[in-house]
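Go through this chain for my students:
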Amino acid sequence: MPEFTSDVTIDDIAVRDTNVSSAVDEPVRAMILDMLADTARSVTEIDAELAGRGYDRTLNTVRHHVNELRDAGLVEVARLEERNGGTTKYYRANTIVLSYALPEDARAAVDSMARDLAPDIAALVADLETTHGDALERIADGMAPCEHCRSQKYETYLLLTILRRAFVAGTLRDDPVQ
């Protein structure tokens, strides 16, 4: 994989997954995603919770927002319940979207921790590239829609995606992937 070089010192990488960002650009969808992070809910329950928070939407609008989140892969059906001749779907979030800003006085501490961890991450990425280099290149090549786009940072995005998902599996799940 080509190494990222620049005349500018890179301090951070902001990841913008187009599926995620378009799905949560609507503030009510971000709120729904947050509600579903802890508890599976039906569209009717989501609607009631939104109304309690001061968001007056029709049930069809709420259903549309849930479907957009589902289509983006951010929520999934957790269970189905049969009642009164109908089926109720209960949705849960499978993705957490974080949108925060660190306090300005935290920068030095965060930078120090990142510097301490950087050698371990470099070794981890080198091992990942050694072990899965062919698959990484194949996936990154498949991400480029045209020859002109080959200069994009697909490899960086792919590595960050893998590291983010490994972080979730290793720290946030009750059933970490072994």
Observations:
- DSSP finds six helices and two strands in the chain.
